[in-house]
Amino acid sequence: MTIEEILKECWQLIIKGVNIPSTVKAKDTDYVILDCDYDLEDTPSNGLVVKWFFNANEVAYQWIYGRNPLAGDITRKYVDLKYKASDNPYTTYRAMKLNKPGIDLSGEYKCVISTFADEQSASASMLVYSTEDKFELIHRKKIIDDKNGVEITCMAEGLYPQPTLDISIEDVPEKQTKPTITLRADGLYDILSRTILLDENLPEAAIVKCLLGIPKVNYNISHKAVYYPG
């Protein structure tokens, strides 16, 4: 074994931890920090480069030791390139500070720390979710086959990722209705669910409930109303 090979075995670039929030609420979050804490140990710093990748191969951020950090296309409008994660000159710009994160930042992130002698990586995912801008429950009387009835509509706008929306009436067997889901140009979802019922099948005071949810982040919110048949 050569001296160079022996030295390489002693070198040990270590990633001590990758800190990425798993879920982030859009609009309510001022900033998030994606941190990749590492230690060069005895590894020479020659060729030190920190790279963050988004969804496998898109460069989101890059810092070459001795130069200023650079943002990729996905992070350019969010990243604070002046943010310093530490006072150690070899780890100063290891992290990304993303201001007012949007849903387009949802995905898998991988930090790659490399020198001429070694390379290590670590990854984690982040989901930026959006709760509703609008949520309504509307009921109106409707004639169904010459009988009195009601049309119940629940709708919500501006959610991410894909939401669910269920209509239920207390003490009435649940009637399965498939909601209409629309993916907007801005990446957010609108959802609408509608059901029609005869008054004769409803209690005197029917408690109507709309349950809106985003399963991936365990988010739920409901609206209730009372409908009086007749």
TrEMBL record:
Name the UniProt record assigns to this protein: Ig-like domain-containing protein
InterPro entries for this protein: Ig-like_dom_sf, Ig-like_fold
Domain of life: Eukaryota
Organism of this sequence: Apis cerana cerana
